Amino acid sequence: MSRRVVGWTSLTFLVALAVTYPLLSSLYPRLGTIATVDEFIASHRGVRLQTLSLCYGLLFVLTLLQTAVFV
To answer: Does the CA dihedral 9-12-18-21 come out positive or negative?
Structure first.
């Protein structure tokens, strides 16, 4: 594999990770002070398990792919 292909591949992975990690962290609600269980449940209503699973799955596949390319 030529140096140019490796360079573009690494740049592509870097951009993908730089976009994906902030998007994943933005899915979590901004928690202030929580005094009751009801406030805790209300603050987590917007986060869906399917969305988090999809994001973590994509990051896992991206990390495996990146490792496989550079091995």
So the answer is: negative
Are the C-beta atoms of 34 and 43 separated by less than 8 Å?
A: yes
CB 7 within 8 A of CB 70: no
CA count, 13 A, side-chain hemisphere, 58: 13
Torsional class of 29: left (φ above 0), alpha (ψ -120 to 50), beta (otherwise): beta
Handedness of CA 15, 5, 71, 54 (dihedral sign): positive
Rounded to a whole number of angstroms, the distance between the first and last alpha carbons of the chain is: 12
Instruction: Note if the pTM is more than 0.70.
Output: no
**pLDDT for 26-64, tens place per residue?**
766 565 666 787 777 776 666 666 766 777 788 788 888
Q: Name the residue ranges covered by the structural domains of the chain.
A: 3-70
